[in-house]
Specification:
homodimer, 475 residues, alpha/beta, Rossmann fold, 3 domains, 17 helices, elongated
Amino acid sequence: MTKVMERSVVKQLKHIFEPKSVAVIGASGDLGKFGGRAFFLPLETGYRGRLYPVNPTRSEVFGVKTYPSVLDIPDDIELAIIAVPAPMVLNTMEECIKKGVKGVVMISAGFAEIGEEGKKLQDQVVKIAHDAGIRMVGPNSNGIYSSRVRLNLLYYRSPRLGSISFISQSGTLGGYLFEWANSKGYGFSKFVSSGNQASLNVSDYLEYLGQDPDTSVIVLYIESVQEGHRFVEIARSVVKKKPVIAFKGGRTAVGSRATLSHTASLAGSDEIFDAACRQAGVIRCYEVTHPFDLAEALAQQPLPKGKRVTIVGSGGQCVATADACASLGLELPEFDADTKRRLMELLPPHAPVPTNPVDTAAGGDPMTGPLIVDLLAQLDYIDGIITHGPMIGWGITPERITSLLTESEMVTSIPEKYGKPVVCTAAARRQGRGDVGYDLYRHARIPMYTTPEESARAMWGLMEYAEIRRKMDQS
Amino acid sequence: MTKVMERSVVKQLKHIFEPKSVAVIGASGDLGKFGGRAFFLPLETGYRGRLYPVNPTRSEVFGVKTYPSVLDIPDDIELAIIAVPAPMVLNTMEECIKKGVKGVVMISAGFAEIGEEGKKLQDQVVKIAHDAGIRMVGPNSNGIYSSRVRLNLLYYRSPRLGSISFISQSGTLGGYLFEWANSKGYGFSKFVSSGNQASLNVSDYLEYLGQDPDTSVIVLYIESVQEGHRFVEIARSVVKKKPVIAFKGGRTAVGSRATLSHTASLAGSDEIFDAACRQAGVIRCYEVTHPFDLAEALAQQPLPKGKRVTIVGSGGQCVATADACASLGLELPEFDADTKRRLMELLPPHAPVPTNPVDTAAGGDPMTGPLIVDLLAQLDYIDGIITHGPMIGWGITPERITSLLTESEMVTSIPEKYGKPVVCTAAARRQGRGDVGYDLYRHARIPMYTTPEESARAMWGLMEYAEIRRKMDQS
């Protein structure tokens, strides 16, 4: 047992995700290089600790005085971010140990991913770290993000704050998806590009994020799982507290072949991974962006009591959403006679006889939408609601809304009032149209998706996780 | 046989999609109403014919003099757009016939979709039209769009020009998808919200679009098919010339229940529809937006000779794209020894041993990407290429590119040079970053998608349609 194993992973990862001081070793002024971004981005995002650039060949980067070595910094350094060429890593690591750093993010590449020689160097680096009792992200990591201390080492310059955390075994795709999810409006707590996972692997990050109060949902991009049993054990204990959603790269033969060259790891059997997910209660997705759509709903909405859903909107959206829900195993209960009668009173005269999904028909009073949703949310056989648009007429003024409805009558109050989740399908961009309905939804954190299938999947994610939790509580 | 049946559908639909003069009956100044939009939108989009508003209660709308009746217009009227309340429709229709209009778009609702009484009224309206030998879109249509004459009756105010045509049995969802596809940058030739299909149905529109020189791909949103045999016959003859891609609403029991109330039509058996698609060579999709992603590739790229694909990009993107391709039945052939050797010369030293997909690894010479793609495009066992990003370094100047590569060496020249399709996965928005690579792709009409799965599906669509055509040519 090396010295590192005596210390708790959680405590060690706190040094990495919540450092009070950071040295960027290999900091440069070139934003085309990791060393440039790794210093510039934390500076720009407003890292809340003390940040020092280390570079023996330059006196300053981005206007900040550099130090020739980490040993020259007149301050304690909690986290070292290393972005120097591979041949310089051993020496840099030894200096970090001498300095007493508590954690390392190793951006440098040229280790196990390039073959046997690189693997040897990687083993030496890990031994130095572990002998000194510290842990390391990477090597070959694209960096980390932590909202708590505003530490951002990624391409994306202003990550949106939120409670989704994302562990990615792929650096470039991970960063790409982080940016994609940000552009959708989803907010993040932590991100880690785990690289070659020489010192810390997915299970370690899961353990840390499981207890992290800033994280409410965890997304994984995984190519292979080290220590399978430990993964299942840790994931299962995390899932009891918060949802874990995984996409696995390398599920086909050619995809698996590609992972070998990518992260120096042959993807394990897909059946084994699938069984592990089922055992641990990890929700699995099959397109790279789907976990984030699910995560947004899980981060914002209450958990439903069952899998019974109602859909309120216009005809074709109702049809496509109903198909998608049914395909995912969700139920659309038919309404009782009394509910049908009350719906007919609310719907415009030309609307079809109400059924589930409810076609609100065009041209009705724009204010009846909220009343319909409120009526349906009260039904004890409805567990969640998907609306099409914000159920408020286009371009209506806030004054007209508040003159017609109290706050508690609006759709946005449903999740809190009834403890039932609401998600919405809405066109991506309604800006500049003065649409107060969308603003209200956004403010109330009702997740908005652009297609019926995305909304259905998000509702499925909520219902699936709720079921996983119910089963776990029973066992 | 009514008089209408004697005339060719194609000729009659030309009056509707390429009219020289249009009367909007029920034109109003209220953009919240169909009658307002149906006059304002063609005005704003620059309809290339003569446009007349009809409204007996107003002297002008949007600054244009109105006529009390279509009979008062001192000009021939080729197309009448009718957006008056249902009780006024019979009289309006009779006036249109008297005026000698050649086609009608019936926006008005309150017909078969509201029950037996509405159905009777609908039958009367259709009889008047057909007895006079003319055809009608709708009733209960949300309108049409025709790029040829810039006639736009939809919500979306400035449709992007292109060669995709879209027939939608759902008005609201159809308009929504039309807007969604426009926001993705896909361009349209024609759109029709077919409404209750009392006079013209999907088969009629297909027949017209099949011979329309402005249309290169046809997308269908279908809930039910009338005249199944005719649909298969027409679709099959159209597919010999251009691809037809369909999404069907109501494929599940609850979805089917929803179609009944939506378009007054019970969705047919999903198995029968599926068999019809296979017989006709119609490509079927299972999410509402997927047909448009496929259509964009089919509209812009050459047809591949087989289903063998190569992927060039960064690690995780390669893995996820390879998985998606393999899941769709595409092949990723391994490279021959000579190609591997030549790839190793092009790739940076730290890149993994080249395989298919090709992981270009970060940090290499940004100009080697195009050379790699060109090398692979020449292989006789590769039929199509998926790249990650535009294969040109970020923020590089046009001058530097042209100093290093001739135009015919760029990835954008591959489709024309080798007759092989290229599609690309790229972050949605790179604007303001001065990224000339993306600009070149956009200019060259290389389809860009935001996820590995979208790119894989687009390539699948190209390969699937090419196979359908090969089989048709053989039979």
